[in-house]
Write a structure and sequence with these properties.
The protein is α+β, with helices and mostly antiparallel strands. The protein has 14 helices and 14 strands. It has 3 domains: about 180 residues, no CATH class; about 190 residues, no CATH class; about 50 residues.
């Protein structure tokens, strides 16, 4: 080969090498803990995340790893005040694809921040981040982006800091779904932040328009968060009050007529007509299955716990979805991190529900209950919940079906064993990486306790 040809060959080789390096990782900062400019990456259309659906993300058979890159000053900003839940710009990296920019923030209600912020009042979370892990939300449709990540607009990584078994969310939602109740999908995931292993999280599906599209053929309806059809006095709210809780269709001149009409029908129904009114607007098999699963796993921080204060009582941790064409409503479970813990005895001083399903205490006056004497109100004093509780035959039939199928030991033990094996190495990795991580020994003890609770629920 002549000198000139050798020179040309070297130049071409160098150009190709530089071009390849640039194409493979042009935007990954060498030191993400320092500040860097978050780039805008326009997808080419060939990326895997554009061409596969959400079943890939919520595949129960694998443990996936996600990585966030967040500029140092932006990370410091959200670490200084996680409870503000303010988004900053970052980058999401998954299986060779980089999505940038995305919005990143911490998320959670009171329970998610307990013992993890520097503020002294656990009931009013404040202060800076003092735990390695906090629940996080990643917004894919950030800054006007109109593409989706495996069909999703948001990712939610739940820290599981209050759940040493690391199974409550995944198992609870699986049980609801196995019984035909529309509920989020949940799997475990490893999360890296700026090149460092943060820990094992529950990757739980966001309840939004994408959730509705996945679960309902009639998927253009309204989705509401934490607004019950009736107030404590058994009357509908104003239409604007419902709309204040709307999570879809906000920009389309929405109407809350369907949920408000349902509430009015319940309020007006006579005792003899109540079941028929409910059956006209709801799938009875589905809503009684919801009640069976909820009460069996003791989701005591859910819609059947009416917390009282300031002269009124209300419940939380649920969504409603309206199917507009069918004019049906569906109750959707949410926030299961405190489920299972009160099955054998009331382990949590805040959440225990005093009443068995359908029971009423204190003649429908608020009353104190639990180790801390917090006020609550019997759920069946709510006319809608009381109406569901009146389907006694259906409840007993579905409860038997649940215990003999979805909750059966033969099925659950295999399921938990598979998930244990899937996350064991990631749990050990966290213990070896962070001083405040859950130890494998504590995890194993909590798993044993969870299995004991499931045995008790199955037999009682």
């Amino acid at each position: 080969m002549s000198l000139s040809r050798i020179s040309i060959f070297i130049i071409v080789l160098l150009f190709a090498t530089c071009k390849k390096t640039e194409d493979e990782s042009p935007f990954i900062p060498s030191n993400p803990d320092s500040d860097f400019e978050v780039p805008t990456i326009t997808p080419s259309g060939d990326e895997q995340f554009l061409n596969m659906d959400s079943d890939y993300i919520f595949d129960q058979s694998k443990l996936a790893t996600f990585e966030l890159k967040i500029p140092g000053s932006a990370l410091a900003q959200i670490n200084a005040n996680p409870a503000a839940e303010q988004y900053v710009e970052g980058m999401l990296i998954f299986e060779g694809d980089t999505i940038s920019p995305v919005g990143v923030r911490y998320k959670g209600s009171i329970g998610a921040f307990v013992n993890c912020l520097s503020g002294s009042d656990w009931a009013n979370p404040s202060g800076q981040k003092i735990c390695t892990k906090l629940s996080m939300k990643v917004k894919i449709n950030w800054d006007g982006a109109d593409y989706k990540f495996y069909g999703l607009k948001k990712l939610q990584f739940h820290s599981q800091n209050q759940d040493n078994s690391q199974m409550r969310e995944r198992l609870g939602y699986w049980l609801f779904r196995d019984m035909g109740v529309p509920a989020p999908r949940s799997v475990h995931a490893r999360l890296m932040i700026n090149g460092k292993y943060s820990g094992l999280y529950a990757l739980t599906e966001q309840i939004d328009g994408r959730f509705a599209k996945y679960n309902f053929e009639d998927d253009d309806g309204n989705l509401y968060k934490e607004i019950w059809p009736l107030n404590m006095n058994g009357q509908p709210f104003s239409e604007q009050t419902y709309l204040n809780h709307l999570k879809t269709n906000e920009d389309e001149s929405p109407s809350a007529a369907l949920i408000r009409d349902f509430a009015q029908e319940i309020a007006n129904a006579s005792p003899t007509d109540l079941q028929a009114v409910i059956a006209n607007r709801m799938d009875i098999q589905e809503i009684i299955s919801y009640a069976v699963v909820d009460r069996t796993i003791r989701h005591d921080d859910g819609p059947f716990h009416w917390y009282c204060g300031g002269g009124s009582c209300s419940s939380h941790n649920f969504y409603w979805y309206e199917e507009p064409t069918l004019e049906k409503l569906h109750l959707i479970p949410w926030d299961l991190d405190n489920a299972f813990e009160n099955i054998i005895f009331n382990a949590n001083p805040v959440t225990p529900i005093a009443d068995a399903w359908g029971q009423i205490t204190a003649n429908c006056a608020p009353f104190e209950h639990g180790a801390w004497g917090l006020e609550q109100w019997s759920a069946s004093c709510d006319k809608l919940t009381g109406g569901w509780a009146s389907f006694e035959t259906e409840y007993e039939q579905i409860l038997s079906q649940f215990k003999n199928n979805s909750l059966a030991a033969a099925q659950i033990n295999v399921l938990l064993s598979d998930w244990e094996n899937q996350i064991r190495a990631a749990t050990l990795e966290a213990e070896q990486t962070h001083d405040d991580a859950l130890s494998v020994s504590r995890w194993e003890i909590a798993l044993g306790q969870l299995k004991g609770q499931l045995d008790y629920a199955r037999d009682n």
